[in-house]
Structures are given as C-alpha cells and as structure tokens.
User: What shape does this take?
Amino acid sequence: MEGIRTLIVDDEELARKAVRRILKEESDVEIVGECADGTTALKRIRELTPDVVCLDIQMPGMGGFDVLKALPEEERPFILFMTAYDEHAIKAFEMHAVDYLLKPVDAQRTRRAFAHIRQMQLQEQRARRYDELLDSIKRFSGIEPNEEAIGIRGDKQYASRVLVRKDGSMLFVPVADIDWIEADRNYMKLHVGAEVHVLRERLSRLHETLDPRLFARIHRSTIVNLLRIKEIQPWFSGDYVVILKNGTQLRMSRHFRESMERQLKS
Assistant: This one.
C-alpha cells in the first residue's frame, strides 16, 4: 500500500506541531503540507489531493465544517476533525468524518484512527479492482450472446449448444442460456434459469469447448457466464463472492480471479 499523504490544518502552531510529532511515528504517513486557516486549506486540498486531512473545526474565518462543505463529495479526503470541545462530535460524524480528536490530540487515538484509514483505503482499492474486473467483463463480452456469437472465433470453434438428457429424451441447450455450471463428482450441473440439467462430463473438458469471451472458470468446481455477473465482493482469505443477476452467490478463488483477469486481457 502506498503512503498516506496527510495535510495538517490548524490555526495554532503548537497544535500542528503536536500532530506532526505523532504522525512522524507512523512509517507510512507522509505529511504533504500544513495550513493555518480554512481558505488556504481548501486551496491546498484541491492542489495536493491528500488522502487525509487533520482538520481543526474552529478557525478564524472559514472553519473546518465550512472547508468540508465547500468540497464536492468526490473530492473529499478522509477527515480527522480536531477540536478542544466535544460539542461538535455528532455533526462531525454526520459529515462522515473518520474520527473526532479532542485536543490535546492523543497519540494512541490518532494511531487507531490511521489504522482505520488503512482499512478503508484497502477496501477502496478492492472496490476499484472489482469495478475494473466488471468493466473488463462488459468490454470483452459486450455483445449479447447467441448461436452466431458463440460459434467460430479465430481458428477455433466453440460449442453453441450442449446435448443433455431430459425425461428419457435428448435436449439441446444453447450455451448462451446457461447461467453457471457446477461440478458434482463425475457429472456437471448446468443451471439454466430455474432448470438444472445434468451432464456426464469433466468440468475441464467442458470448459475448453466454451467461448472464453463469455465463460470463465472461477473455482475448481464452477464456471460462470460472464454476462450473468452483477457484482463481485470480497470474502475470506483472499477469495471473493460472485453475485449473479438472479441473486445466486458463487465463490471465486483468488487463483481463478487472476486467471480470469488474464483471460479477459488476452
């Protein structure tokens, strides 16, 4: 993770010095500047785009709340409000401050606030990766699939339909209609809307017959239709949850996420 670029804003030099001394103990915090008034702070925030602003609430002229109100939501950094009074705490948190530090600023409380910021940064980075992955899915499978779309790509022919047994007869299932596929011992279960078709086949072999523009393996036992994905969320131990448009939740392992990213970029 990159360093946490921090701007200190307080009209009292001793208060700025105290915060600076605490933050210098944080190895990944970079102090990018200091300001003594709200007007200058607003200008510096826009110029420097810091990750965090340690912002005094009560300053002559433009106070901390005024600075935050002047910033559009998308331009706001993480805010740590600082004040000598506790009466503004509710308003501070209503404005989505990360924390509310009473003066003299406590080192331990400040460290906890920055630990929280690190977690929030990590979540934002993950969210950006999920958005990028979903954008890749949309970009590389932007055409609505049909039998022509899932036919020949380059010099390789991919399956346009799969033959399954149903009620003692044989049925052709268009692969474009498949939401996802799961391995169940020596069989495959094809999930097509509310129906489930059983096919005797290995998952790896079936995967090879499907167009990689439209299908990706997200787990050793799961293949998903990329056009059915609604969102991707973090789970445990580096794994993820893929949520389909019909509400189905599927596990995606970290290994297969990396493989799918490479597949979409190829």
